[in-house]
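dumping this here before i forget
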Amino acid sequence: MEFSGLIRKRRSVRAFKEREVDDSVIREIFEDINQAPSAGNLQSFVVYVVKNVKIKKMIAEAAYGQDFIVQAPIVLIFCADKKRSARKYGKRGENLYSIQDATIAAVYSILSIQDHGLSSVWVGAFDEERVSSILDLDKDIRPVAIIPFGYPDEEPEFPGRRSIEEIFKMFDGNDK
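structure:
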């Protein structure tokens, strides 16, 4: 699919069919995620892949009862690897670049998922400590996004967007 069409078609889906995703498709999505740019090409993130229903239920509870997480056949949890980035960039790497790396990778995931005829939703509302505990994460690994995905069982309406003029502000420095 053409990129502009892909991003305009994508919607946050919170209802998934009871249909498994083929391992070869999952592998292609992982390959796409692996192409995400990162600070210093460090790829200072790790992605946890959850298929186990019991674990998905725990994640949904940690995400304040967002039960559609359980319904998705696959849940990706994008985590910043703070130590990996800090080795090269210090505190800025630990507190910013690692988070940016993980979120850029998460964006690549939702675009690749869409391109493969599947759907996803970005979940940012969750108890970080509970998710860390469920996944038994090291203190230097920080969960930043949960992406449940699978075959959609709904077609959400276009939610609308702010106007281009409202978002983009021309700045040429002449106003100072």
